[in-house]
Structure formats: structure tokens, C-alpha cells
Amino acid sequence: MELSLAIGIGALTASGVWLILRPRTFQVIIGLSLLSYAVNLFIVAMGRVRTGAPVLIAKEIGDATKHADPLPQALVLTAIVIGFATTALFLVVLLASRGLARTDHVDGQEPEA
Amino acid sequence: MFLLAVLVLPFAGSFIAALLRVNARNAEAWLAGAVALTAFCLIGASYPNVTNGGVVGWRTDWIAELGLAFVLRLDGFAWAFAMLITGIGFLVVLYARYYMSPSDPVPRFFSLLLAFMGAMLGIVLSGNLLQLVFFWELTSLFSFLLISYWHHNAAARDGARMALVITSTGGLCLFAGVLLIGHIVGSYDLEQVLASGNAIRSHALYVPALVLILLGALTKSAQFPFHFWLPHAMAAPTPVSAYLHSATMVKAGVFLLVRLWPAMGGTNEWLWLVGSIGLITFFLGAFLAVFQQDLKGLLAYSTISHLGLITLLTGLDTPFGQIAAIFHIMNHATFKASLFMAAGIIDHETGTRDIRRLSGLWAFMPITATLAMVAAAAMAGVPLLNGFLSKEMFFAETIEVHDNSLVDQALPYIVTLASTFTVAYSLRFIRDVFFGPAPAGLPRVPHEPPLLMRLPAELLVLACLIVGVAPALTVAPILDTAARAVLGSAMPEYSLRLWHGITPEFLMSIVAMVGGLGVYVMLRSYLLAHEGPPLLGRINGKRIFDWVLVTLSWRLARWLATNLGTRHLQPQLRVLAGVAFVAALLPLYARGLSLTGPSGRGFDLVFGLLWVVGVGCAIGAAVQAKFHRVVALILLGTAGLVTCVSFVWLSAPDVALTQIVVETVTTVLLLLGLRWLPKRIARPGAAEAPDSIRWHRVRDFSIAFLAGLGLATLALAAMQLPDNHSISRYFVENAYTKGGGTNVVNVILVDFRGFDTLGEITVLAVVALTVFALLRRFRPAPESIPVPEQQHAQDAHDEAHPDRQKGDTAKDTLATAALMMGLLFPVIGVVAIFLLLRGHDLPGGGFVAGIAMATAFILQYMARGTVWVEARLHVMPVRWMGFGLLLAGSAGAAACVFGHPFLTSYFAYAELPLLGRVPTASALLFDIGVFSLVVGATVLMLIAIAHQSLRRYGVPLLAGQRPPDERAKEELV
Is B731 helix (H, G, I), strand (E, B) or coil? Predict the structure, then answer.
């Protein structure tokens, strides 16, 4: 279970890092999205892997330690929304850059041969 | 309390002065004069409180936890200085009223002058060293602004910049030194510091602290080797020179030396550092002053020389030396300020300051000439004037034995020689300007200035005379008070008398005067023919300063930028990835890492298979992102879905819900963007990539592989550690009792960490508006503007069939789906509201509900097209956003009305018809705000991008037709 998740996080990270090092803007935006999946999973995983743990609390709280860790979840929840906003911003910037520079290279100009 | 009034008064005056009309010369002068005179009288009236070592204090706590307080403190020494600052300030204001031309913007001048007066008072009244440093830097700043008052003049700008760089760098050193003192003493309070002299002197950090503080004091007082800024500061208006560069600001350095002498003086380091720098400056300044051709330049070097004299007195490290230093500070301020005023009058009335062009002015302006001559005589140390008295004290002190070194033995001879030059330049000032033949070729015919312009100089010269003739009756008690404040009980015997008999110091004065006459006569022909001094003419402080400045701020910066910086993104990201990797590796290297922790859970086949898909999609997206963007996007979406399912698995239903809706809108967003990207088609027969690119790929692949391996390892290790439930436990235990909700994640978002959420939705709003603003000026690449191929194919198909109209194919595409999407609109809306309302107790909440609602809108756009939707539906996302932010903010602020901190939530149960007992918390209002903002922001971003396809780039419009993008803008707002 942990191993599968760790390998998944690793693959997402590796693909993401590979893509953000590529020269085309679209590759970078896909890479950033993959990286944010990896990071969000990683943060939630810091609350430890608990399958089927209670998420909602009853009026009488039993053992708080059996409960799913709410803190990383709250952090990731807002991170997902903000991630969407930054993706949108980056997309618009890359479109504007492509319109102005006539290229989709990340530096705004094709590398010298 | 009156100290605070004295300190605040100039700043308040400065503020008012800045608001007056540009040509309100009289009002400005009245205001500034009244401020200075009031402060002068207030301080003067407190004299009885500071005699005999009395201190007036005022303090208020600033950061009590750190023991920092704002302390004002007036003792005899500060009193004397404050009187100089306000008194001469008043005279300078009066003088400036007539000096400034009607075309000068006077509000700026008087405003800055008053602010400077406030800052200077701040220095002398500070009872806390940190506070002193603050005012110290403030004087540097105002001095910069005052020197550059005529900023159309390049010399003024350069001089101002030089003064600022040197004095504020010195100020930073002083700050560092003060921090060291604070470290040694354990307090920044001036009285405690002064009382801890022995602790400071015996501390290991004494020498660094001393050097740093001296750097601050000596740069401010224009001491060698930092003296060169003062002559360049003469580009300032003359009232500024008279005030800042003779009487006040440059005295701040020697003020600090005398002030801190009880705490830091009395060591060999003090004697040698301060003493030798003072001696060099005294000698050098006097020597260079003789060779100046500019009246103000002569006075500037003479000021440097006199400040050197004062520094030397302080450096000689005896109580008597400090008394003489204080006395000379006062005397120099009076005669030098009046000399500057006289120089300004001459400049004003003749149009030149060049000594070679001036002569015989006695005939034209006898009163000004007399004033200047008396003041210059005081400067030279002629008996019956105040300069003579302090000069004699100075000579007497130099004769004393200090450490009996060779320099100490030679000291009386060196200072006599330097005084010879002092006499020579004073003589030159008088003889060359006022006597000789009548001047020829002056820009104006000189005459006496207005009475009130002369009055300040007259008062100052009168003071020189009275003090010089009857010191015991006038200045003696004040000097005694000031000295007692510095020295405490250790007051030496001294007498302030005109005639002490024929003493060695009297003989030194006579020698200097006769020698000065001789030097002047010898050098007269040289002076009229040559520019600049012999020997030293080539050593130019300004040139060295410029070289240092250019080297540091331009050459070094450029070297660093070219060698360490790059304008390319990829190397930067590579470094970023590398640094992140190393930063994560270092603690692991130090603390070790175990991959088999106690709380592993074994293998789950379905979860494993899920991630086989996930890994495949991630790698697939990475491979396809270059040539097959749509494929990459689909694979990205699938990887996102796998992530989403994993969240469910990890008992995080809220996160999973949010992830799935965000995934949807992100995919739509990126699909919208694809339209504007360049075509890139892989050619199967293309040549192999060159070696350099293949090497880049190998390197990037290694970095990516290492990063993935690293994070995977870290995650695996962390997941197997036992959970220590750091702070989450608090949230679980208190979510219901304190937040009134059973969904802990939601309670954290809207209640416990509500302020964070408020910040986050604000960021969301800002980003959405930025996206909108960027797209308003969007200009796509020309090759993306024409209608895309697919649309051409559709139209061609329509035109080929006689029964079809152009656009039918587009309309028919996804017709069934479009119908369903239309019907789904209210359904999704209800689901969104359901998610919003249950959020506090069950998975859901404002974020997910907002994005779900946004999807409902987007679906309509996708199904029917922008034009169709906007003809029927006015979404107005910016209003949604505004309403949301306002509601969230006011829901939080409502708590303040009931006396609770911002964003405190309140909850209760309400009986509603039909629905029954419903938990209502004020947090729900907050969540509705979040919902509304998220809807607005998401829709705004998506629609703004979607609208780009409607715009007609560069196509002329028919008459009366509105451009579609303008209509679109109205729709959005």
C-alpha cells in the first residue's frame, strides 16, 4: 500500500520534473500539474495511510488518534484550488508570451543554433 | 512631555510647510521661523533643570518584551546642542527667506529644513542608542534631499549622492557598532551605556565596536579619509551649507564622540585612532583650504579642518580636552555659520564666488565686509573673539603630555604649523575679497543686502564678540553645565579668561599669526595663477569614490550577473530542482533514514493496479506533451483521476471531491488554451537530434529520476513512521465543541483557519482579475488568428450539400449531449448548493460547491457556444467575486460587532419549515462567500479565455457594428 503510493508519487514527480525542464511552455504547464498531484498526495500521505478511517466526528469523540488526519487535508484542499488558479494564470501568460514572441519556447525566443 | 513637543514640533511644521503654495515665501518663513523660535524658547526655558548635572527625561515603552523604550533625555550637553540647532536654525530660516529666489519652490526647502531640524534634535535628545541611529540616518537622508535641492544641477545631484553614500554607510557601521555595544552592556539605554564604561573597555569586542562607531562618527564629521564629501556638498543652497555643513549635521559626529567618551574613551585605541585622524584632518583641511578658489570651498575645507581640531581634542583623551572640544563646537558653529551667510550674501550680490574675480568689495558693502572680517578673525583665533579662547584651550591641551610618544612631543609644533595655514586662509578670505582694486567684470554691481538678510550674520558675529570679550559673564556657566553633563563629577579645574599672561599657548597663537601672514604673502602669486594645491592635487577623493562606486555597483554587479545569472528558464529550474534535492538530502544524511517503519500496511492489489495506471499515465503525459498535446492532456486528466481515487482511499473524501471538480475545469481550461499554441508535428524521417541536445536530455532525465526516487523514498519512509498527531488532535477534539461542525476539514477551513482561507480566496480573486486583465490586451500569433482547419472542413462540408447551411455541422456536433447539458444546468446547481450547505457536517463545502457551480456554467458555454449562452444568461462573474469577498469579510467582521476577534464564528440550530432542525453557523455565511467567489473567479478565467475565439483580430468592423470583444467585456463585468 505505502509502496504503491510512494512509487506513484515518485513517478508523478519524475515526469513532472522532466517536463518542467523541457523547452516548450505546454510541456512545462503539464509538468507543473503533475508535480502538484505529487506534492498534494505527499502532503496527505504525511497524515499517514489510513484506509476507512472516520472522517466525520460524532458528538462524543472517541479516540482522536483513530481519526483521519484533517490538517493535511485542509491544506491540500485549498492547495488544489490555488493550483487551478496558478495553472490558469500560467496558461494565460504563456499564451500572451507566444502571441508577443511568436514562439512557445520558455525563454520567449528560440535558442541560438 | 515638553521634550516630545520639541521633537514633534519641527516634523509637524515640516508637514504643514509641504502643503503650502509654491510661491508662499513669506508664509513659509513665518511658519518655519515660528517653529524654530518656539522650540528655541522651550528648550531655553528648561535651562534651570539641566544645571549641575540635572536631566530632564521622558520615556514610553515601545517593545516592552525586548526592553526597548522610546526615551528622550535632555542634559546640559544636549541642551547646549539643542540651543545651537534651534537658534541657528531660526537665523538660517530668516536668512533663507531673502536668499531663496522667488522662482525656487520654497515649500520643499522649508519643509526639508524643518524635518532636518527635527531629525537633528532627535539625535541630541535620544536617550536610547538605537533611536539615535534612526535619527542619525534621517539626517543623512534630509541632508541628501537638501543638497540636491537644485536637482537640475548635475553637481548638486552628484554631491548629494556622495554625501548620502558616505554618511549613510557610516550610519550603517554606527548601527552595527551600537548593536555590539548593546550586546556588551545588555541595554541600549544611554545612561546604562555611559555607566558601563569599564565593562565596555575590557570586553573582547571593544575594538570592533569602537572602530564601527568611529566609522559612523568620522564619516558624518567629514574626517580624513572621508572628508571629500563635504566640499562637494557645497552645491547646496548656502543656507543649507550654513546650517547643515557648519553648525549642525557635521557636528553630529563630534557630538557622538564627546557623548560616548565616558563610555569608550580612556584607552590607547581611542587616543591613537581618534587623535591621529583628528590631527591629520586638522592639518590637511587647513592646508587644502588655503588653495581653494571658491569661497564656499575655502569655508568647507576650513570646516573640515576645525572638525579635525575638535576630533583631535576629543582624541587627546582628557576631561579638559572634552571641555575644550565642547567649547570649540559652540564657537565654530557661530563664526562659521556667519561666514557662510556672508559668502552667500557675496554670491547673491555679485553673482560669483570665485576669489580670483572678487576684490575690493569693502567699498560696496562695508557692513557685510565688517561682519565677514570679524568672523574670519574669530576663525583665525584673533584675541578678543571667541575663536581665540577655544584655540588657546586647544594649544594648552596639546602641550600637555599624553603618552609621551614622538608624535605627542611633536604635537605642539604640528598644530602650530596647521594653525599657520588657518591664519593664512582667513587672511586670504579677508584680503582678496574685500580689499584691493574694485572688481571688474562681475555679473552684477554689488551692493548691501536687505537689512533682514544681514541680521542673522550680525547676531552671530555679535555673539562671537561678546563671548570673546567677556567669556566668564556669558558662556562660562553654559559650558560648565554642558561639560558637567558629559564628565559628571570628574570636572577638571579650568578658567575661562581673556588674559592668562604670557603663556606657551599664547606664544603659539602669536607664532601662528605671524607665520600665517608670511605664508599668505609667499603664496599670493601662486594662488592667483594656479588651480588647486601643490603635491596633493593629484589625490582626488572624488575620483577614488567614483571608482569604488563604479567598481562595486556596476563592474562587480555585471560580472556577477554574467557569471552567476542567466536569462534562460531551464538552467534556473535545474538549479531549483537541484537545491531542493540537496536540501532534502542534507538532514537525511545527518539523521539517517529507515525504509521499514513499524506501521506498514502490506500490499493492496487493487490500489497497486490503480497506480500501475497512474504511473503509466504520468510517464505517457511526459512523453507525449511535445507533439501530441491532446493526448498528453487526456493522460494528465487520468493521472488526476487516479490521484483523486487515492484520496478516497486515504480517507480524504473532501479532498477527493475538490480534486475531481478541479480536474474537470483544469482540463477545460487547457483545452481552451490549445487553440492558440503553434502546430508542432513530429516528422518520422527527421534527423537525429545533435549530441548536445541528447546530452541535455540525459542530464534532465537523471535529474528527474533522482527527484522522483528521492520523493518516493521520503514518502515511503515518512508513511511508515508512527503518527505523533502533532496539532491535528486539537482540531479533531474541538471541531464540534468549538466550531459546531462534524466535518473537521471544513471546520478548519472556515473556522479555525478562517483567516488563511480569507487570504486564499483573495489570492484567487486577484489571479482571476489578472487573467482577465492580461487577456484584454491579448494578441495571438498571426498564424493562430485564421479560422482553424477543422472549421474550414465543416464549412466545406456544409457548402457541398445544398440542403445544409454554413455552420450546421458545428451546430449538430454533440447535439444530444448539448441537450442533456442544458437540462443538467439546474441539477448541477442544486447539487452545488447541496454540497455547500452540508459542508459543515458532511463532505462538501464552499470550494467544491463553487467549482461545481462553475462547471454548470461552463457546460452551457460548451454545449451551445458563447453567443447563444450570453444572449440568454448574464453571469457577471466579477460581481459574484465582489459579493463573495464582501460576504466572507463581513461574516468575519460581524464577530467584531459582538466584541469577539475577527472571524470568530457563532453557531446554533434553527428550526426551518420542511427541512426541520438545521445547524446554522456564522461560518456558513463565510462559506457562502467562499462559494460565490470561487464561482466568479473560475467562470471569469474560463470565459475570458473562451472569449478569445470570438474576437476578430485586425479585421475592420462594419459601420455601427460593435466589436464582439467589447460586448464580451460588458458581459463579464
Answer: helix
Q: How far is residue A37's CA from residue A40's CA, in Å, rounded to a whole number?
A: 5
Q: Which of the residues A42, A80, A87 would you substitute to probe the B interface, choosing the one with the greatest number of B C-beta atoms within 10 Å?
A: A80
Q: 3-state class of A56 per DSSP?
A: strand
Q: Mean pLDDT, consecutive 10-residue segments, chain B of 973 residues?
A: 88 90 82 92 91 86 82 92 93 90 86 94 92 94 92 90 92 95 90 90 92 94 89 90 88 93 89 92 91 89 93 90 92 92 89 84 88 91 87 88 82 90 91 84 82 90 90 87 86 78 86 90 79 64 83 88 85 90 87 70 84 94 90 94 92 91 91 85 71 88 93 88 76 78 83 86 92 85 78 82 79 83 92 87 87 90 83 86 90 76 69 63 83 93 84 54 52 54
Give residues with Cβ within 8 angstroms of B938, minimum separation 6. A84, B665, B768, B850, B851, B854
Q: How far apart are CA B330 and CA B248, in angstroms?
A: 10
Instruction: Tell me if residue B721 falls in helix, strand or coil.
Output: coil
Kind and range of the H or E run holding B401: none
Given an 8 Å threshold on Cβ–Cβ distance, is B732 in contact with A31?
Answer: no
Structural domains counted in chain A: 1
Sign of CA dihedral B226, B231, B237, B240: positive
CB A49 within 8 A of CB A5: yes
SS3 B73: strand
Closest C-alpha to A81, from B935, B951, B878, B241: B935
Integer Cα distance of B221 and B233 in angstroms: 13
Beta-carbon separation of A11 and B619 below 8 A: yes
| DSSP single-letter state for residue B394 | H
ipTM: 0.95
Q: List the Cα angle B275/B281/B287 in 5-degree steps.
A: 135
- H/E segment holding residue B566: none
pLDDT in tens, B663-676: 999 999 898 888 88
Contacts 24+ apart (CB under 8 A), B66-71: B67/B187, B68/B128, B68/B130, B68/B188, B69/B128, B69/B189, B70/B128, B70/B131, B71/B126, B71/B127, B71/B128, B71/B131, B71/B189, B71/B190
- Name residues 26-55 of chain A within 8 A of B (Cβ): 26-27, 29-31, 33-34, 37-38, 40-42, 44-55
Distance between CA atoms of residues B373 and B939, nearest Å:
82
Please, which residues 696-725 of chain B have a Cβ atom closer than 8 Å to chain A? 700-701, 703-705, 707-709, 711-716, 718-721, 723, 725
Prior bond of B225 cis (ω within 30°) = yes
Residue carrying the nine cell digits 519652490: B105
B74's grid cell: 535632555
CA distance B765 to chain A (A): 9
Task: Give the CATH number for residue A31.
Answer: 1.10.287
Q: Please enumerate in sequence order all residues whose Cβ is within 8 A of that of B964, keeping only pairs 6 or more positions apart, or say none.
A: B950, B951, B952
Residue A93 belongs to domain spanning: 2-50+68-101
As beta bridge partners, residue B912 has B916
Task: Give chain B positions within 8 Å (CB) of A60.
Answer: none
Question: Do residues B357 and B434 lie in contact, with contact meaning Cβ atoms separated by under 8 Å?
Answer: no
Residue of A nearest to B572 (CA): A21
| Global confidence as pTM | 0.69
* A residues 68..107 contacting B (CB < 8 A): 68-71, 73-74, 76-78, 80-89, 91-96, 98-100, 102-104, 106-107
- How many contacts does A have with B, using Cβ atoms within 8 A? 336
pLDDT in tens, B50-94: 888 888 888 888 887 777 889 999 999 999 999 999 999 999 999
